[in-house]
């Protein structure tokens, strides 16, 4: 059943502050608004109610009889709402942390480094959400995320760039037996591709066009919808995959993969730390964000 009638919440907040302060000016200072904004919100509430709430005197506000009765109820309800909100926020606790990232970031970057963060913050309770589509995530589902972006962050999220994009082909060491291919040679190989839905990432066609091979078609492509699967196929010598620097560094260091070509490309994208703009930041979220920034700075 719909709850009705309900006045606009900002009007109630302005009315309660003006009642308590006895002044539109002091209420405006408390709420970080202008005096005219408070006056307009109270007037809007009076029109909604069809009742005068204040008698405006030269140097003070005085509640009408209707205003006095309404003020008691509104203040009680707003205090109750604030207490309920605080209780819900406390249940989460400052040590709980939900991190969201794509499967590639989770497998290739985060999990090899996560032990360092946990060692520095053993009391934090970590929950990891792996979702390749940032657009399908609500900003209420996570405290901080790490995603590849091309362009600015989605509405409602703040962002800090961690790594610039650099994309190059990789394969198993035995696949080419030490040879390096030219970009023009690559369409003749088995190319491991992300399916069409993963358009945020650079495609093979785009990479080849950036390196002077337009309108190329692979003679024998393999397609998957998750990036870690493509890398596993590359490690097993099944073909050549595109790799993103920083995500792939550990695989190169350990000799699981090697560069198949000296050429690289970029669309100007990068990996970002992301967090909700309007959320009160917890100590755990702030610590994790600072840790991401330090990690990226140390790795260049």
From TrEMBL:
Keywords: DNA-binding, Transcription, Transcription regulation. This is Glycine cleavage system transcriptional activator. Belongs to the LysR transcriptional regulatory family. The lineage of its organism: Bacteria, Pseudomonadati, Pseudomonadota, Betaproteobacteria, Burkholderiales. PANTHER family: HTH-TYPE TRANSCRIPTIONAL ACTIVATOR TTDR-RELATED, HTH-TYPE TRANSCRIPTIONAL REGULATOR. The keyword DNA repair does not apply. Residues 7-64 form the HTH lysR-type domain. Pfam families: HTH_1, LysR_substrate.
């Amino acid at each position: 059943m719909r709850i009705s009638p309900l006045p606009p919440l900002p009007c109630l907040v302005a009315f309660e502050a003006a009642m308590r302060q006895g002044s539109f000016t002091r209420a405006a200072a408390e709420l970080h608004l202008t005096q005219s904004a408070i006056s307009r919100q109270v007037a809007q509430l009076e029109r909604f109610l069809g009742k005068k709430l204040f008698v405006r005197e030269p140097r003070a506000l005085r509640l009408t009889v209707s205003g006095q009765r309404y003020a008691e109820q509104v203040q009680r309800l707003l205090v109750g709402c604030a207490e309920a909100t605080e209780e819900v926020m406390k249940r989460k606790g400052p040590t709980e942390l939900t991190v969201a990232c794509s499967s590639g970031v989770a497998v290739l970057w985060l999990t090899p480094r996560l032990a360092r963060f946990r060692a520095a913050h053993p009391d934090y309770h970590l929950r990891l959400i792996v979702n390749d589509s940032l657009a399908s995530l609500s900003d209420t589902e996570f405290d901080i995320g790490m995603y590849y972006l091309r362009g600015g962050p989605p509405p409602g999220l703040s962002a800090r760039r961690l790594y610039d994009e650099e994309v190059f082909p990789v394969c198993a060491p035995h696949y080419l037996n030490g040879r390096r291919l030219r970009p023009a040679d690559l369409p003749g190989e088995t190319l491991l591709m992300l399916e069409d839905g993963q358009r945020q990432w650079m495609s093979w066609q785009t990479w080849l066009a950036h390196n002077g091979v337009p309108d190329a078609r692979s003679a024998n492509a393999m397609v998957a919808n998750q990036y870690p699967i493509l890398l596993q196929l590359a490690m097993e010598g099944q073909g050549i995959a595109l790799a993103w620097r920083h995500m792939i560094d550990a695989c190169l260091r350990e000799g699981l993969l090697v560069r198949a070509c000296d050429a690289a490309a970029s669309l100007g994208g990068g990996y970002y730390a992301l967090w909700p703009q309007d959320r009160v930041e917890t100590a755990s979220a702030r610590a994790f964000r600072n840790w991401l920034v330090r990690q990226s700075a140390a790795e260049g």
